[in-house]
Amino acid sequence: MQPLEIKNDIFWVGAVDYDTRDFHGYAQVSEGTSYNAYLIKDTKNVLFDSVSASFTGAMLCRLAKALPLEKVDYIVCNHLELDHAGALAELAARCKPEKIFCSQMGVKSMQGYFDCTDWPVQAVKNGESLNIGSRTIQFFETRMLHWPDSMVSYIPEDKLLISNDAFGQNIASTVRYADEVSEEYLLNAVEAYYYNIVLPFSPQVTDALKALGGLDIDLIAPDHGLMYRGKQSTRYILDAYARLAAQKPQKRALIIYDSMWHSTEKMAYAVASGLEDVGVPSRVMSLKRNHHSQVMTELARCGAVLAGSPTHNNGILPAMAAMLTYMKGLRPKNRVGGAFGSYGWSGEGPKIIHEWLASMDMEMPALFVKTQWTPRHESFGQSHALGKTVGQALVAKCGA
Ligand code: FEO
């Protein structure tokens, strides 16, 4: 359990959580995550962020190998969510820092989580600088990226951006740099993280990229997953965020469904066939077999969403209701939508889904399709036509 020196006298002192599969109670993470914390040794020794509470011991062990705990002078809390502040009370008690810095909104979350009236807390303003000896720390607020208290810390002398949640990925590994894994693996992790956590704050991402655009950066050190070192790697993640934030339509469709007796399932495959006929690739995802966070990750590559559920108790099946609630909260933009589903008696399901998708400002080029009992020739044709119409609208939206 060693600290890793990432620049001269700058160390990674975080912890890797290989066991978690449930990120913050809402997103599935297939291999765990990491909680990254960083130490700068200078005239003033500064610790940036901490770890989830259950990893306090691991972090303290790693930190103590780089520096005796009582020699930590300052703690910077870029964000107070408990995956980064879970060890803060223990650190405050053991390090007895001269100062604990956070944003003005961070003071509120710190007071909310901790009995911190005796802590030497100092709020910093956007753009404020702190001299720590041979280095300077510049603080930039990144409000709502992804909490009101979020900020990042930039150290110009080292061209280092400690970016907190921004640019992270849920990767648990013994490697620490993004250039040590394949680009496909990295991109999937970046998209999964962005589409399940950052997506609603895409306007703030665009603003942050502008604000940070003038900085000379050759190491981006996020609080989850791998670091980006060198111009090529840092450019890669900055460009990826610009692309993800823009949500430019992509010629690929996502078909999600739940089914009771396979009728809506058969309609889903007929919808896929209609999309195929107009040259739009798609992926069919059963909500029984795919977690809502996997569906959102797939949406990163799709410009259209077609959703189907049978009617159940005059509504829709609970997995679809949960999916649409989750998706709407994440505020996807620039999508084309379509709704379908089977029914036995009352038949409200597809209309409810249509209204959900329309409420996410999706372009809805066709009326919903509903099939009573089981799909036969005519309703297969209607489902196929729905896929075609949505596919054509997507192709037009993509400008191809
Ligand atoms: Fe990684 Fe918002 O905590």
List the helices and strands and how they pair.
Blueprint lengths: L3 E4 L2 E3 L2 E3 L4 E2 L3 E2 L4 E3 L2 E3 L5 E3 L7 H11 L7 E3 L5 H4 L2 H8 L3 E5 H10 L7 E4 L4 E3 L4 E6 L9 E5 L4 E5 L18 H16 L3 H11 L6 E4 L5 E2 H17 L6 E5 L5 H15 L4 E5 L5 H8 L4 E5 L2 E2 L2 E2 L1 H12 L6 E8 L5 H11 L9 E4 L4 H22 L2
Parallel strand pairs: 8-9, 9-10, 10-11, 15-16, 18-19, 18-20, 20-23, 23-24
Antiparallel strand pairs: 1-2, 2-7, 3-6, 4-5, 7-8, 12-13, 13-14, 14-15, 16-17, 21-22
Helix pairs in contact: 5-9, 6-7, 8-12
Bound molecules: MU-OXO-diiron (FEO).
What does this structure look like?
The protein is α/β, with parallel strands linked by helices and 400 residues long. Helix content is 36%, strand content 23%. It is built from twelve helices and 24 strands. Strands 1-2-7-8-9-10-11 form a seven-stranded mixed β-sheet. The longest helix has 22 residues. Bound molecules: MU-OXO-diiron.
